[in-house]
Amino acid sequence: MELSKEDIERVNFVWGIYDSTNEGVDAFYLGDLLRALEMNPTLATIEKLGGTKKKGEKKLMVDEFYPIFAQVIKDKDQGVYEDFIECLKLYDKAEDGHMIGGELTHILLSLGEKLTDAELDEVVKDCMDPEDEDGMIPYVPFLAKVCGKPVPADDNPFNK
Questions:
Q1: 50 phi-psi bin (left φ>0, alpha ψ -120 to 50, beta other)
Q2: What angle, 0 to 180 degrees and rounded to 10, lies between the N-to-C axes of helices 117-127 and 101-110?
Q3: Backbone angles phi, psi at 66, to 5 degrees
Q4: What pLDDT does 76 receive?
Q5: Per-residue pLDDT tens for 58-75?
Q6: What is the rounded CA–CA span in Å between residue 139 and residue 101?
Q7: What is the DSSP letter of 61?
Q8: For residues 38, 140, 78 and 24, what is the CA-based torsion angle, rounded to 10 degrees?
């Protein structure tokens, strides 16, 4: 797959942030690079594409990164913000943009790539609004914060 001129410009911009010395980017940061380019690769995908679990094992140059980025673009097996909202709607019994906070933490611990308790605590602290008196939280602002999107004024996805 060929990258568009716009894709190449985006890659070069993000690459310049990670490779300020023009010596390449440590493969440990491959996932960070892809996420900065609005991709959502799994840890398994990152490893399959050449990402490393330890720093200093391997360096990537930008010309090696273009085909990796092209491969991730064509990979349809990644969720996006809107997909996550649709999934959490299943837990929204009142269809008002709220779900039980405990259910959300359970989902984060049990589905997909497993989070450690420390990672979960960090996500909850940074992204989750406090539970109301019924233990409910608005999940749209949570997802917006996790996905780096602006928090919408209306947090009820059923109004859209």
A1: left
A2: 140
A3: -55, -50
A4: 58
A5: 999 999 999 999 988 887
A6: 9
A7: -
A8: 30
Rounded CA separation 54/68 (Å): 19
- The per-residue pLDDT for 59 is 95
Contacts of 72 (CB under 8 A, 6+ apart): 34, 39, 41, 45, 49, 78
| 28/54 Cα distance (integer angstroms) | 6
Residue position matching structure tokens 């837990």: 91
Q: What is the DSSP letter of 150?
A: P
Pairing of strands 59-60, 25-26: antiparallel
Q: Which of the 8 DSSP states describes residue 40? A: -
Integer Cα distance of 154 and 141 in angstroms: 9
- From the centroid of its chain, how far is CA 80? 8
Q: What is the CA radius of gyration of the chain?
A: 18
Question: How far does CA 1 lie from the centroid of its chain?
Answer: 23
CB 49: neighbour CB atoms within 10 A?
Answer: 20
Q: For the whole model, what pTM was predicted?
A: 0.56
**DSSP annotation of 100:** E
